[in-house]
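Continuing from the previous page of notes. For each protein in this section, the sequence appears first, followed by its C-alpha cells. Read the first protein now.
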Amino acid sequence: MADDLCSFTKDIFLVKVPKKSPLVLRMIVVMFAMVCGVYICSICLKQISIRTKVGFVSFPEVIQKPCQKPDIEPGEVPYVHFPKPTTYSRAECACNPVRYFAILSMQRSGSGWFETLLNNHTNISSNGEIFSVKVRRSNMSTIAETLDRLYNLDWLSSASKNECTAAVGLKWMLNQGLMQNHEQIVEYFNTRGVAAIFLFRRNLLRRLISVLANSYDREAKLLNGTHKSHVHSHHEAEILAKYKPTINATLLIANLRQVEETTAKALEYFKSTRHIILYYEDVVKNRTKLIDLQDFLKVPQRDLKSRQVKIHKGSLSNQIENWGDVQKALKGTQYESFLHADIRR
C-alpha cells in the first residue's frame, strides 16, 4: 500500500514539460535581432544628422558673413563694392572690393586703343560698347538692367577677368543713349557709385579723317573683304591709310564746332559724378596719365600695353584728298592749329 502511494506521488511530480516548437524559438530570435538592428540604425542616423547640421550651419555663416571694407577714406566708401555674381562664385575673392567705371567718349577718339590698355591690366575688365546694341538703350529701364548685370560681374565677354576683378566697366559712346538719358544715368552713377572716365581727342580734324575713313571701309572692306575698325599689324594699317577722304570744306567749321559743343555738354551733364578727364593725345605723349588712371581706379600699378597699331599718322597733307580746300577753310580760325599738330604712338 505504501509502495502504491509512493508511486502515485512520483507520477504527480514527474510530469514531463512539453517541448517548445523550434519555429517559435526562431521567430523570437529574428524579432530580437530586428529590434536591435532598428535601435542601432536609429542611433547612427541621429549621429549623422547632428554632424550634418553642424557642418551646414557653420559653413554658410562663414560665406554669408558681411565683407569688411578696407581702410579707405570716407569719401571713397560709396565707390567700393562687393558684387555677388549669380553665374559663378567669386570664391576666395568674394571680399575683394570692386570699382565700377564707364569710359565716356566719341567714335574714333582713341577709345578702342585706350580700352585695350585697360584690359591689359590683370584686375581690370572693360567690356566694350555694350550699348551699341540699340535694344539695350531703348529706355532707361533696359539701360539700368544692362548696367546692373555688368556691375554684378554677370556680363560675360572676351574682356571678362577672373573672380578677382578689381574694376569693371564699359565703353559708352555719347550718341548711344547717354546724352538723351543723361539725368537718369547721372542719378544711377551717383547712386551706384560709378566713376566716369572721359576720353576725348584734342585734334578734331584728325578724328574727322578717322571717322570718314572708317565709314568708307565699312563698304569697301579693303582688308581682303573684311572691315576692321582697328588693326594689329603695320601692313594692315598701311593698306587702310591709303584711302584719302575728301572733306566738305564748307561744312568743316560747323562740324568741328558741333563736336566741341557735344563734348562741353557731356562734361556739364556729368560734372556731379566722380570723374577724370583724359585726352587721347596726352595719353600717347605722357604715359604718366595711365598711372593717374590706375590711381583713380585704385588698382595696383602696372605697365599697360596694347597690340593695336595706329592707322593714320604723319602729315595731314598726305591723308586728305582736298588738302588745299581744308587749309583755306581753317586758316585764321580757332581751328588752324589742327593743321599742324601730329602725334605718334
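Done with the first. The second protein uses the same format. Note its length before scrolling.
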Amino acid sequence: MNLRALALFREIYWSGSITGGATRLGVSQPSASRMLRHLEEQIGYALFERADGRIRPTREAEVLIQDVDQIFLRVDQTSAMARRLARGGGERMAVVCVHMLATTLPRVMGRLLRKYPELELELDTKGQAEQVNTLLGRGADLGIATGQEPPSSLASRVFGRSRLMAVLPAAHPLAAREVVALEDYAHHPCLLASDRDPLGALAMELFNRHNIRPKTKLTIGSPLFCYDAVRTFGLIAIAGPLTTAAMTNRSDVVIRPLEPEADYAIYALWNPGAAPSAARETLLKWLAEDLRPLLNATP
C-alpha cells in the first residue's frame, strides 16, 4: 500500500466514480481501475460495489476514508508549512470552496490582498463533506459551501438562500413551459448531480419524498459539467444559481423554475476554535455583497 494508491481511493470516493478519481489524480481510467484492483487485493476486501450503473463505497471504505483523509490533511499542512517557510512566513488563510465559486472567489480574494498585502492566501475546491473534514482537522481556515443547512459541528454564516432551477436544451419540448414539474424528470431523460454533492442530495431527497423515480441517464460529479452536458446530450437537469448564472446569455439552453419549489443555502464555515480574523471578516463581507444578486438575503 502506498500514498498514490490511497490518493486514488480518496479521489474515487469523493468524486463518486473511477473516471472522476482518475481525472483528479491525472491518470487514465484503465490505469486507475488497475490500481484500485491492486489496492483491494493488498488489503483483502472490496472498497466499492456497483449498483444501477454507479459505484458505491463499501462499509469498509466508509471507515477507511476517515483515516485516509487525515493522512492527506497532514500532507497538505506539511506542504503548506514548507512553502511558508521558504517564503519567510507571514499570515496565511487557506480557503476551500465549492466548484462553482471557483470563478467568483478569486475576484474577491484579489481585493483582499490589496487591503492586506502581507496576507498569504491559498484556494482549493472541495465538496461540503470534504470541507467539514478539512476544517475540523485545521487543514483550511475557511470554507464556502452549499446545502440545506450548515453543519452544526462548525461555526457558520449564511449568505442567503435560493431555489433549485430546471435547465433544459432550448429545443426540448419542455422548454416552452413557464415552469417545469419534478414529475417531468420521471418521463424525460435527465442528468443529475451526484448524491455526494449537497444539491444532488437535495434533488434526490425531493424525488424520494414525492415517490418519483427520475429517468437518469448521466450523473455528474461537478456542476461545472452541467451546461456542456445539457447541450451535448440533450438532457434536462437541475441546478442552482451559481451554475445557472453562467448560462444566462446562452441561446442553446433555457432555465425554468422547478415545482414544487425547493431552496438551499450558501454559507461560510470555519472551525469554532479559530482565532478572530479581520481578514476573514472582510472576505465574508465582500463575498456576501458579490453573491447578493444571486440570492434571497436572509434577515
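What the second structure shows: The domain at 90-160+265-294 is CATH 3.40.190.10 (D-Maltodextrin-Binding Protein; domain 2). The two ends are 51 Å apart (CA to CA). We return to this in next week's lecture.
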